[in-house]
Amino acid sequence: MGQWEVTEAGETELLAALRRGDEVAFHELVSTHQPSLLRLARIYAPSQAVAEEIVQETWLAVLRGLDGFAGRAALRTWMARILVNIARRRSGVEARSTPLSSLARAEADGFQAAVDPSRFMTEGPYAGHWASYPDDWSGVPERVLLSQETRDVAFAAIARLPPAQRMVITLRDVQGWPPQDVCEALEISEANHRVLLHRGRAKVRQALEDYFQQM
Hints:
This protein is 64% helix and 0% strand. By secondary structure, it is mainly alpha-helical. The chain folds into two domains: 8-90, Rna Polymerase Sigma Factor, Chain: A (Orthogonal Bundle), CATH 1.10.1740; 100-213, Arc Repressor Mutant, subunit A, CATH 1.10.10.10. Mean pLDDT is 80; it is low at 94-98.
């Protein structure tokens, strides 16, 4: 990220610069993380305008909280937690809803068929593995796979996912976060993370299969 490397030492230097009020450091922080924070905010916000307001409030909270940031989690993980809390409060769900970590456990523990259950083995050492494999997309032209319409189908499928699955797949597959950072940001277990990611990916893939079959 600019002159501050994306390493533990680089983040320590960045934090020191931010705490000194270094405007260049803050500009780089915003430039690097604004797009990902907007995507997270959009999960909760009813419009792009509201999402942008949530992100702006997040940046103010980040500035106010820098001195108290202990560095036990990655900086982006800490900022994501701040944003989620602000977004939930702004959307009016904070007082009457369970935490995202509880939603994640409920979604992971509850039975929810992402695709037709008959496509998976139910017995033996390979229970849960594919019995009927997904479609082979090798014959689909690259221009179709990479088209904006295909991306729109995928993002629409993500938008329809339950909240915890939507958040996990957004962080992992849209923003490229590693599993540990996702678990820390959402305060969920690695086991729940795996289940939520699997279910979310399966639903998105099914949406894409349906789309390609109609072509």
